[in-house]
Amino acid sequence: MPRPSSRRTIPRTALARLPRRPRRRFGAAEPPAELAVKRSLKAAALRDCGRRCVYCATPLERETATLDHVYPRAHGGTDVPGNLVASCVRCNRLKGDLLPQEFFLRFPWAGLNFMRYARAVHRALKRNARRAVSLACAA
Ligand SMILES: [Zn+2]
Fold it and tell me: Domain span at residue 84?
């Protein structure tokens, strides 16, 4: 009898892009240095965003916050502080791999909060957000 676990289905979208670095096995520990860097980036993002989700303004704790790449990694966005914000899990998932202007055009409320709370984010990203929100409001 074939084991069901031997036939894993892979979502079509997962095949479209190549992973940037080898995936860790599930449950495998992250290298300590990388973990420390990520932790301090997250702490800095939380502080800069006033401990709120920059998209829906929900207050966040260190445990509930996620680190969001405003310009998605899937589109070449990097780990620089000007591209990182604190967001809740729901908004992070809602945004997914959308470009910030696409996301704000679709959800202008997220753009309004972003302009208010993403204080340390790169200036060009804020400018883009402003443009997308006014486009969405004009439509
Ligand atoms: Zn949120």
Answer: 32-138
Q: How far is the CA of 69 from the centre of ligand 1 (A)?
A: 14
Q: What's the gap between Cα 38 and its chain centre?
A: 13
Is 77 part of any domain? yes
Q: Is 25 within a domain?
A: no
| Low-confidence residues of the chain: pLDDT under 70 | 1-24
- Count of the separate structural domains present in the chain: 1
Distance from Cα 37 to the centre of ligand 1, integer Å = 23
Q: Which tens digit of pLDDT belongs to each residue from 21-54? A: 666 677 777 788 888 999 999 999 999 999 999 9
| 12 alpha carbon – ligand 1 mean position (Å) | 27
Give CA–CA dist 103/24, Å, rounded.
29
Q: Dig out the tokens for 26 from the structure.
A: 């599930």
Residues with CB under 5 A from ligand 1 (ion): 53, 55-56, 88, 91
In the chain the first and final C-alpha atoms are separated, in Å, by 58
Task: For residue 98, give the CATH number of its domain.
Answer: 1.10.30
Q: How many angstroms separate the alpha carbon of residue 101 from the centre of ligand 1?
A: 17
